[in-house]
Amino acid sequence: xxxxxxxxxxxxxxxxxxxxxxxxxxxxxxxxxxxxxLGIAHPPGFPVFTQLHxxxxxLVPFGDAAFRGALASGLFGAGAVGCLVAAARWLDVRPLPxxxxxxxxxxxxxxxxxxxxxEVYSGAACWVAAVLWLGLRLRALGDGRDxxxxxxxxxxxxxxxxxxxxxxxxxxxxxxxxxxxxxxxxALVAGFxxxxxxCLAYLPLRSAAEPWRDWGNPETLxxxxxxxxxxxxxxxxxxxxxxxxxxxxxxFLGQLWTASPALLVLGLSGLVLAxxxxxxxxxxxxxxVDLGYAVAIxxxxxxxxxxxxxGLCALGLGAAVALDAASRLPAGRVALPAAxxALVAxxxxxxxxxxxxxxxxxxxxxxxxxxxxxxALAFVVSDGVAAGxxxxxxxxxxxxxxxxxxxxxxxxVSSVGxxxxxxxxxxxxxxxxxxxxxxxxxxxxxxxxxEWAEGADAAGRPADLAPRFPWFATGxxxxxxxxxxxxxxxxxxSPDPQTGRALASVAGDLGRWALGRSPAxxxxxxxxxxxxxxxxxxxxxxxxxxxxxxxxxxxARAAAERALALAPDDRVTRLNMARMDxxxxxxxxxxxxxxxxxxxxxxxxxxLGLRGVLRANAGDLAGAADDWRRALEVDPAQVEARVGxxxxxxx
Length: 651
Prior knowledge:
Elements: H1 2-18, H2 28-37, H3 47-59, H4 65-89, H5 95-106, H6 109-115, H7 121-141, H8 144-156, H9 164-177, H10 183-197, H11 202-207, H12 221-228, H13 231-237, H14 246-259, H15 261-274, H16 281-297, H17 300-303, H18 309-327, H19 332-346, H20 350-353, H21 360-371, E1 377-380, H22 383-394, E2 403-406, H23 413-422, H24 436-442, E3 448-450, E4 465-468, E5 471-474, H25 482-490, H26 497-514, H27 519-532, H28 537-549, H29 553-566, H30 571-584, H31 587-600, H32 605-617, H33 621-634, H34 639-648
Parallel strand pairs: 1-2, 1-3
Antiparallel strand pairs: 3-5, 4-5
């Protein structure tokens, strides 16, 4: 246990050194707000996280609330490291390789990213590491106390991340081994599991007190069931769930490679070597389950760098096994130090964890709050802004008069209800099932602030919106210094991917608003978005479209080629390249691109419409008419098809 304590202490010091000084992006604000006031977080509610993080946030006597929440994540990350070292020892791994493998996991960029911000994933990793430790101990010793501990962890999994339910399938059999032939022991294990699962009772009990953060309002049995199983998330992302795509597997492995090439190589090698050790098959099974969850059940998490953290525990143990095997070679005295040095040299956590002095998220939220007039009604769409305002209002007391509504949830009582209880005048007339358009009609005469977005909510968007950094407003003129203010904020930001993406979203919002109004401003906004998020194909695609509008064809093509290099299989990017080929007269290249698109999807209306143009230019009017008719059957509003057929019908 000495090695486990040393490794946990070193990891805790590392996480504390890089702990985010302020609020960070994505879910951190919403989770932090729920923990601070002991509220209800987004599905499945995370009662274990909420209570433990809330306890740490209130007990730590220094730093602001966001920093304390980051320290809590680091505490659980350090716990995961300690449990991994203890687990490695039951795999017959020597002390030094065990410590090195666990620390390699801790300092990989992906793990560190979540251990220095307010997030649920370091806690999930701690759970997985503890299960592996107790499971390996139980296998070796047959001690019923380990079975009881596993039973308790199985129950507590219900109150943490949804992925842990998959790992329960692995942990439950191990927990039953000791008591399988002893009914009394089996009953005790089951009882401990039920005891752990009682953490779910927190959700309806706390919801009844009506905290600010009361996501889903799980007071009734039906609402609790929906919240626990994430009904709203499945409804929103149903089209992406359950589909295994090779590109997602590549993205998952690419993120692990970026986080730490050495850990990925050593870890996977060690998983193979561990198959020969007692209990070693569990490591491979844990990693494969995590891979399946990331690419088939929750591929949305890949966009937010939220997948793969529990599986890092298996890779950390695999690295320990690989290093241990190296130390047992004839040249082991040289092999182990050399492998350790190579491992340390390959780690590059600084590119991922440079958030220690970053307070950009909080400053952006405060800027939005400062700009909004009294009792304004604010419609937001992104996780970062919605969660940021949740934290600012609940924890910091920022602008309690501001009614912040998440546009995707305007039809739900559980989402609008808490705002309506606090600010009934701002939401007067709202009814269950109201859409964005209905809501804005109800709010006529109220000052409205709007986080720009395209898509389903475009029909309900107020017509007189103008940019007022960092969002958009009704009834006021445009902010001519928008980009200058964004640049000043970006200059203070850390280089981590989440910060870049969030600021790129703000710049992209301005660019999309300017399309059709001010082409030069659209180009400036899209260019800034691409600079801030250079690894996003969508940013380069949007920039290419804006450059076409100002006649910079060569630059537009360069941007489109950059987008295609980043996402060779992206339909929109491929279609844009084909359109540019058509405009440039590159007939053969355009035809090849369009044929490839239609081979993937014969009902692609845009590809059919564009191929019709290509055929018409070549004199094949019958073939063009056939493509255009097929395009309009799929999409009656397809532009090339409508215009082309109209011209063919002219006398």
